[in-house]
Design goal:
Elements lengths: L6 E11 L1 E7 L6 H10 L4 E7 L4 E5 L11 E6 L2 E6 L2 H13 L2 E5 L2 E13 L5 E8 L5 H13 L4 E6 L19 H13 L3 E5 L41 H18 L4 E5 L10 H19 L4 E5 L23 H10 L5 E4 L10 H8 L4 E3 L6 H13 L4 E5 L4 H16 L7 H15 L21
Parallel strand pairs: 2-3, 9-10, 9-16, 10-11, 12-13, 13-14, 14-15, 15-16
Antiparallel strand pairs: 1-8, 2-4, 4-6, 5-6, 5-8, 7-8
């Protein structure tokens, strides 16, 4: 089992089943994706049929239904069946995922059956906001995106941030996408399925640095490699948007409109804004970038949406910080940090990515929190200690939550996404790194079986060498 519920009382016996199962459930679980999950999590030994009720329950047999008065959801497994009861649709979906996690395959009369050990669970997430950021690269295939979204749903994340690295075809400027980019009609079914899994999709588009929609170490530029005459939209080196120009701000506004239409009524929009190389921290420039972000913040507030921005450009590296934590801070002085943070609208959410902070706490998060910003710590797969320091900081400092980032390393780092999910959900996670690899592989086989296709098995297309 991947998840260790907050409050678990074990009882004697098990509920054993196979074949067709009839359940009474809320309409949110009467979807094809949950019937598919049921079939896969029972190792293809059982089919699910649902009778709809307006209550937030999932009930099989005649197990007692326990009201979730002091928790997000309850699970009761008895010898005669099981029940999940929750406070809302999303909490019920999370409870359903926890139930599936407890299924074990056993031999029964020379056939595979499923065993669920009897217990009572009262469970709540430790961190209420659990985001994960996914980059859709030119090398990403559509099935990989679909599988990853399902993986995140099973891990009980609350939000998935989609960043299209030159892989979404926009109406406002065709050069924003490589020729093999995805159409909106190709992406919409995946977004619908994400929503069915209880995930909110957050659109992302870089509004300052990373304007190339490509990794700096490879030198590709989605716009300028296709149409060099569009150079005037960018800084001299092409890395940043020239946001001083009205035509650039108008284009970015059009991009936001298209992404919001595609991704639905999200509570958040990620504007990026990290690693703006060669930015000169003059008062005029600092006022301009703050005004730019504040204007977007106000625009999105009218849509009941908050913007998220990376925090590195607004931070100074103090000598008092733990020298073992290699913080990324691009502001040149404490005075610049103070000026920028005072000028920015406090409705902006700061994503504090400090990937090399091995030791708790991540000190930079307090800088944002102390001046009134909601803050997210951002684990990546730099290492287990770095991940734990981020999640522990979010928990103990009562930050808004976490945003796990994946970047280009999913071919070896998928298990870190599982580690962040479990550590964020549980108060005291005991899951080890090696376990996280085997559990990730097991979970991936269930959310979207490879059906024997070698390249779709696991999370890396190849085991030896590296190919695209």
């Amino acid at each position: 089992m991947i998840f260790n519920p907050q409050n678990l009382t074990k009882k004697e016996g098990s509920f054993i089943f196979s074949g067709e199962i009839k359940a009474s459930a809320h309409p949110c679980l009467n979807k094809d994706i949950f019937k598919e999950f049921w079939h896969n999590f029972t190792f293809q030994s059982s089919e699910l049929n649902v009778d709809v009720t307006d209550r937030y329950i999932f009930s099989v047999g005649n197990a007692e239904q326990i009201s979730p008065e002091d928790c997000d959801y309850t699970i009761n497994i008895e010898k005669t069946g099981f029940s999940v009861c929750a406070k809302s649709e999303k909490k019920l979906i999370q409870g359903f995922m926890t139930l599936l996690d407890r299924f074990k395959a056993i031999d029964c009369d020379e056939k595979t059956a499923i065993e669920a050990e009897c217990c009572q669970i009262k469970d709540s997430a430790c961190l209420k906001t659990r985001m994960i950021h996914y980059c859709i690269f030119p090398e990403t295939e559509l099935w990989e995106l679909k599988r990853f979204v399902r993986f995140c749903g099973a891990l009980k994340y609350t939000h998935v941030i989609l960043e299209f690295w030159g892989m979404l075809k926009y109406d406002c400027l065709k050069e924003l996408s490589w020729s093999h980019g995805f159409t909106k009609d190709e992406i919409r079914p995946i977004i619908r399925e994400a929503n069915e899994l209880g995930l909110e999709i957050i659109p992302m588009f870089n509004h300052w640095g990373h304007a190339s929609a490509g990794r700096v170490i490879h030198g590709k530029h989605v716009v300028l490699d296709q149409n060099p005459s569009l150079q005037t939209y960018f800084s001299e080196d092409g890395w940043c948007w020239d946001i001083s120009k009205p035509k650039v701000r108008a284009l970015l506004r059009s991009i936001r409109v298209e992404l919001i239409e595609l991704c639905g009524d999200s509570s958040y929009f990620h504007v990026g804004c990290d690693e703006a190389y060669n930015f000169e921290f003059t008062k005029e420039n600092m006022d301009f970038i703050c005004d730019f972000l504040n204007e977007i913040c106000a625009e999105m507030k009218d849509k009941n949406c908050r913007i998220i921005a990376w925090g590195d450009m607004f931070l100074y590296r103090y000598d008092s910080y733990d020298p073992a934590n290699k913080y990324t801070c691009n502001a040149p002085s404490p005075e610049v940090e103070k000026y920028l943070l005072n000028r920015l609208d406090k409705n902006i959410i700061i994503a504090d990515w400090q990937y090399d902070a091995k030791h708790f706490p991540v000190e930079t998060s307090s800088v944002f929190q102390n001046v009134g910003f909601d803050c997210l710590t951002c684990p990546w797969d730099r290492g287990f200690d770095e991940l734990i320091s981020c999640v522990k900081t979010a928990k103990q400092q009562k930050l808004m939550g976490v945003m796990h980032t994946t970047w280009h390393t999913l071919s070896s780092g998928t298990h870190f996404a599982l580690l962040t999910a479990v550590n964020s959900f549980e108060a005291d996670c005991q899951l080890k790194r090696t376990q996280s690899r085997t559990y990730s592989a097991s979970l991936m086989r269930k959310v979207m079986p490879s059906k024997g296709d070698y390249l779709r098995a696991g999370w890396s297309k190849y085991q030896i060498g590296f190919k695209w």
